[in-house]
Every structure is written in structure tokens, then in C-alpha cells.
Amino acid sequence: MTNETTPAPNFIRNQVREEIEGGQVTKIVTRFPPEPNGFLHIGHAKSICLNFGLAEQMGGDCHLRFDDTNPAKEEQAYIDAIKEDVSWLGFEWAGPVRFASDYFDQLYAWAQHLIREGKAYVDDLSPDEIREYRGTLTEPGTPSPYRERNAEENLDLLARMREGEFGESEKVLRAKIDMASPNINLRDPILYRIRHATHHQTGDKWKIYPSYDFTHGQSDALEGVTHSICTLEFEDHRPLYEWFLDNLPVPCKPRQIEFSRLNLNYTLTSKRKLKLLVDQGIVDGWDDPRMPTVSGMRRRGYTPASIRKFCDMIGVTRADGGLVDIAMLTHAIRSDLEDSAPRSMCVLKPLKVVLTNVPEGHEEVYDVPGHPARDDMPVRRVPFTRELYIDRDDFMEEPPKKFFRLAPGKEVRLRNSYVIRCDDVIKDESGEITALHCSVDFDTLGKNPEGRKVKGVIHWVSAVHGVPLEVRLYDNLFLEEQPDKDKDADFLEHLNPESLTVCQAIGEPSLAHATPESRFQFERVGYFCADRHASTPEHLVFNRTVGLKDTWAKIKQKG
């Protein structure tokens, strides 16, 4: 496993550097071409970091181009969200935002060119018949009976398709390549389909829309892209990508390079399945903090730097099929927040403590560092009063031997304050503990008590000055390491019923001024982020980003 001192593998960066040094390429131009039919997820983040990162490192350009060839599934909201995600990750695209639809007129002209060259034809076969005629991996396809239509008839039919004369499945335009090719993608692939749908960029101008395969390479060529970088599932499409470039009068010929996609355990990255989670209300939208979307991770408290660091850690290879441990992702954000997040105290499950030897109205205020290792962060002013809240998990009435927190007759230190002893446990009529009566050893502020060891330190909040918080504890959305591994099973069967727990908590006064997306370490608890949508000064909502325990760091040390 790669550690943080060893550069992660990136074979594409090495190849591009060699091409630039060898003079084959003067300036690298890459592109990130998402479909605007959903929100970007962590797999897209890897591609973003690769394409934009290469351009940054090599002094080139990276274009943002939307592959908007299927208006039935596309929305402006997705376009806006994708632009925001790319910018939030810290990248800038070269020139204006581009759309495949910008090139629809040129693509149509090139379709006509292929027809005139005898390399494309209009087919009347139904979708089912086209699949049947295509053959199998072991058997060649069968030519369509319409394959030998003459160019004049094909041009006329294509024009009538464009005008909307035919129904959606009545006709398609296909390339005429090789129905016996061992690569099924070359068995007369579809270039245009009829779709009676209004397009978000072109309105009702078009009744036919080009396929991804026909659009992608030519769009790259029109933009002067030098390297078309995509995931390994497009490796079998590369011969088709190159066939179009070889058979059309394109201004340049980009090179396609494939890399392995990101497979993260306990995570889904299928946009179709993520959309199902949203549509069925299983999650609270595309940016639910349990979602692996960039916007969901942002809302949960991940930083752009942590996501970029994670993508760098996993590297870029052609080795496919392996699962990346989600602990690597949590390690990246934890190590980032360890250095950057100010500290605060928050009690998730409040239990009242009355300090019986502290006078009514007594108050002390401690100046506590905002971060133990940084002098540039503001000092927190933490009030100490007669009544406090501690976490219920920090008290046990009958503790085991190695329980170093609070128990009847036992002592514990309040963080940044005194040592206290539990003298009495107050219960209601049902036997539920409602409060603890404790006493303070006033000779222990900033020093250890005389003649005895106090091993435990717990966090606390003043009952008088504490700030009410809604705290949302997020966990993995799925219990199964590969939720959709079994194609015959419903991935929803693996949902984690405890992926979200909500606490009505009490935080120290400094949290009252938390702005949306501000991040904190709640001492002894974890890292939290003020919800960018739900948190207001009147109703503070914090999302748990990650706990304090770093399992991947331990694995890395062993490895």
C-alpha cells in the first residue's frame, strides 16, 4: 500500500511528461465530460483531479464539457451542481463551459459525410431486432436488410428524421463498419436516435440526437484535446473512437488513454442507483451527507484538500477490479482536519452535574487555545459554573475495573478545569439517572491532586451558557462491503438502518457563532461541520464528518 512519503503511481502523468519532453505534444489539453443527468460522485472526483491536475502540472488546459446528448434525462440543476462541484474542488476550466450540443450542426454534417462516403445508413430495424442482428461474443452479426440503401435515400431519410417525421423507434442512423468484427462496438454502431424531447440548450431545434460514441471523439477533435482520458470500460470503444477520427475530416486526432475506475467499499457509484436512493426518499437528496457525491461529502464536512489528497493517495493505474478501503478516505479528511479544525467541547448525550461545593452564581472563565498546536487560532473563553453537563457515556454506576471516567466515589478531571468526585446519584421514580451531585477539589486547577492519581479526563459544558445543538451522526449507508456485487439481489437489502442518528446536544458557547461549513473537532468525540443548508444562528445543526480513530493510519504503519 502506498504511504504518504512515496508518490502514488500515475502512469498517465508519466506518459504525458515523456511526450512533452520528446516533442510529440507541445501543450496538453484534457477535458472533463460529465453527463448532466445526476450529481458528481467520488469516482468523478478522481477523474476531475486527474484531468485538471494533469493540465495544472503540465502547463496545459482542461475543458469542462457537458455530454448533453440525452435530453430526456438531463436537467439544468445538474449542470449548475457539476460546475459548483468542480469549482469547489479548486479547479478552473479553460475558456467557457462547453456542451456537446455546441457541435450538433457539425456532427450532423459529418453524419451526412459518412453517408456520402458509403459508411453510414438509415436502418428501419427495431431496437430488439438490432440487438438480435448484432450477434454475440462468439457469433458474428447479421447485416441489416437496409444496410445497402443508396446515399441519396439515406440522406433524405436522415433529413426527415431530423424534422420529426418518424416516431422514436422507427429509424436510426448507423455506421457501416463490420458486422463480423470480434469487437461488438464495431458492428454497425448507432450514430443517431430519434428523440422528441426539448433540449435544455437547443430547445426544439433537433428531433435526433447523436450517440455518445459518435459525439465524444469528434468533440475532442473540435476542441483540440490532445488526451481523451477515460475509465477502462471504454477500452473496447477505443477502436470506434479512432475509426471516426480516421474517417472524418477532423482538425486533429486526440489520443484515448484508459485508467481504472474508483471502486470504494461500502459505497455505490452507479448514478442510476444513487438516483433511486434519492427518488425513493431513502436519502435526503443528492447532497445527503451519507451519499458519495461531491456535494454530499462537502455537506458532511469533507474539504477540497482532503478529497484531492485521497485521489492522489490511490494513484492512477490500469489495474481494475480492486476495492479501495474507505478508511483511506477518512484518513485523508482526518489528517486535514487534525491540523486545521479548531477545538470545542460538545456533549452529545447530556447528563446534568451539580457541583455541590460551588456557590450559586459562581462563575469562572478559562482562556483555552483554539488549537493545541496553532497560535494563530482565536482563544476560546470557556465558562465554568455550578451546574454542568457531561456525556452519559462518561458515567457508570457500576463500572468495570479499567473504567477511568466518572463513577460513584470516583474522581475524574474536567478538561481544562478541576478534578471532581461523584458523591451522589440522583434518580427519578422509574430509576432513571437524572443528575449527579459532585464536589470539586479546588486545589487541582492546572495541577494534579496531592497524593493520588486521577487517570480520567472528560469533556463538559456549562449548563448556564451551553448552546443547544442538533448533531447528526452519520455512518456508512451500507452494511455490505460491495452492496451491488450480487446482481440477482436488491442492493437496498444492505442498507444500514443506523446510518443516521440525531442527538440533541449541548455545545460550548464558542459554537454559537459557527457559520455554515465551518468545521470543528469536538474534543474526545470527532470532527463535525455546521450543515451548509440546515444550520442557522437560531437552530445550529452539525454533521459528524469522521470520528477521531484513524484505522487506516494504523494499517499503514503495519504495512
From TrEMBL:
Q: What is its EC number?
A: 6.1.1.18
Which Pfam families does UniProt cross-reference here?
Answer: tRNA-synt_1c, tRNA-synt_1c_C, tRNA-synt_1c_C2
What positions does the entry give for ATP binding?
35-37, 41-47, 231, 261-262
> Which parts of the sequence form the motif 'HIGH' region?
34-44
Chain ranges of the Glutamyl/glutaminyl-tRNA synthetase class Ib anti-codon binding domain:
341-441
Give one GO molecular function term.
ligase activity
Record-annotated Glutamyl/glutaminyl-tRNA synthetase class Ib catalytic domain positions:
27-328
Q: Which segments constitute the tRNA synthetases class I (E and Q) anti-codon binding domain?
A: 457-531
**InterPro entries to which the protein is assigned, alphabetical:** aa-tRNA-synth_I_CS (IPR001412), Gln-tRNA-synth (IPR004514), Gln/Glu-tRNA_Ligase (IPR050132), Gln_tRNA_ligase_bac (IPR022861), Glu/Gln-tRNA-synth (IPR000924), Glu/Gln-tRNA-synth_Ib_cat-dom (IPR020058), Glu/Gln-tRNA-synth_Ib_codon-bd (IPR020059), Glu_tRNA_lig_a-bdl (IPR020061)
Into which family does the record put it? Belongs to the class-I aminoacyl-tRNA synthetase family.
The protein's matches in NCBIfam families, at most eight in alphabetical order, are given as: glnS (TIGR00440), PRK14703.1 (NF011291)
Q: What is this protein called?
A: Glutamine--tRNA ligase
* Lineage, top ranks: Bacteria, Pseudomonadati, Pseudomonadota, Gammaproteobacteria, Oceanospirillales
Encoding gene, per UniProt annotation? glnS
